[in-house]
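Forgive a beginner's question, but would it be possible to get a protein, spelled out as residues, together with the matching structure tokens, please?
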Amino acid sequence: MALDEKHKRARKMMLWFGIISMGMMFAGLTSAYVVSKNRPDWLTDYQLPNVFIWSTLVILVSSITFHLAKNFVAKGDQTKANLMMISTFILGSLFVVMQFIGFEQIIDAGYRFTGGASNITMSFLYLLVAAHLVHVIAGLIVLIVVIYNHFKKKYNSEEMLGLKLGVTFWHFVDALWLYLFLFLYFFK
């Protein structure tokens, strides 16, 4: 049973309200970062681990694979859609692992996120990246639901709403990381 247009529009609007809310949250956090940058104890000489560069490439490729999956579903090519969805999940999971490796490298470099040995710069870095990781994990859950529905043959060229919403959310999470990475990399 297909959803009528009113329900489809409502679901799309709810996603966009969520995306806008999340965007506002990260705008607020990065604004606080900018304001705090003027503190005398702010670190300017730290270097983000290179694993964050690689994880950025991984998440961008995952956006491409998920977009391709949507295109393959629209064309009726289930085999290629399966491959692209599973690839997206693997890449998303790899991104999460790489983020934790990056955190470990920051800690190994002597920077702490909380406690007596911490500093405000690293606390902000941790907060921004950890908040993004929560959204990526939410994206992975969405992706699992999309993959499950795909294997149950709920998507086809006529009915793709759930898939399209999942792809939109995933693209948002990817674009958000690109923004955060560039912000943290260049704005010290």
User: Anything to note?
Assistant: The helical segments are 5-36, 51-75, 78-108, 120-151, 161-186. The chain has five helices and no strands. The domain at 5-186 is CATH 1.20.120.80 (Four Helix Bundle (Hemerythrin (Met), subunit A)).
